Amino acid sequence: MNPHVRSDDNCHLWVEQSGSGPPLVLCHGGPGMWDYLAPVARLLDDHARTIRWDQRGCGRSQRRGPYSVARFVADLDAVRDQLAGPGMALLGHSWGAHLALRYAIEHPERVSHLIYVSGTGIDPERGWHPHYERNLRQRLGRHLDRWEALGAHARTPAEQRERAVLQWSADFADQDTALRHAQHMATPWLGINEDCNQALNAEVKQELRGSDLIVQCRALDLPVLIIDGAEDIRPRWAVDSLHEALPNSRRLSLAGCGHLPWVENPLDFRQAVTTFLTQHSHQTPSQLHREPANREDPR
């Protein structure tokens, strides 16, 4: 299989497929990181043909811009067009959840299901971030001093990796295993594209302040599963406005896990996602848009 998709502006994007069934495209977080969703693919391989990719400028994809939400939406559409076909299910994690949401808003006829994992919502002021910073420092505990010291000066690649591992360890609820999980995420270390991270974060912040995203979400009548870990250090109330705006969404919080719920609670994560994916599986995306809204909230 060709390990790359070529975007419409000739950027080569690394991709990998596995499993069998209807296509499910996975969007990793960051921005500026690489795909770390292989464990999610393994959980779902018997229910879907999973398609993972490194976003442009990240990981194994070509190191070039431009870095904008519109450009990343177009890249995702190239992945869909060349590997998934006319329609697909979408699963996005963290920043990737926002990317998947934006894609679904712009191309609803090409999306059958949207799975929004550990996203941070659509509140205009992004008021969750001070709470995240406070929770991050608290959960870092004895590693806080080292994390701050590494952030106070220019870092070697080894120090960049060390700081990332410490920061990512706070994304897990069980601190006895958190460092091990974070080390696994950082292996192999493919480097964080800071230019990509800064550009996209700045654009999303501006977008949320000035756009009609809530209005667009109200018009997005396709099935959406909002799923996250109950102990994520990003406050989950930040997602309330998104859930309220979507006419056909379900929300589920998994106990005993943080920002990567499939790592710490894989059985419940798999059951929730596979159950959601099998609903309406016989219908096309355009037919799904005519389904009546479902406002069930198990939380």
TrEMBL record:
Pfam families attached to this UniProt entry: Abhydrolase_1
Superkingdom classification of source: Bacteria
Record has Hydrolase as a keyword: yes
Skewed-composition ranges (Basic and acidic residues): 288-299
Matching Gene3D superfamilies: alpha/beta hydrolase
Annotated region (Disordered), positions in chain: 279-299
Coiled-coil ranges (or none): none
Record-linked PANTHER family: AB HYDROLASE SUPERFAMILY PROTEIN YCLE, MONOACYLGLYCEROL LIPASE
Name used for this protein in its record: Proline iminopeptidase
Organism: Micromonospora lutea
Top-level taxonomy: Bacteria, Bacillati, Actinomycetota, Actinomycetes, Micromonosporales
Encoding gene (name): pip
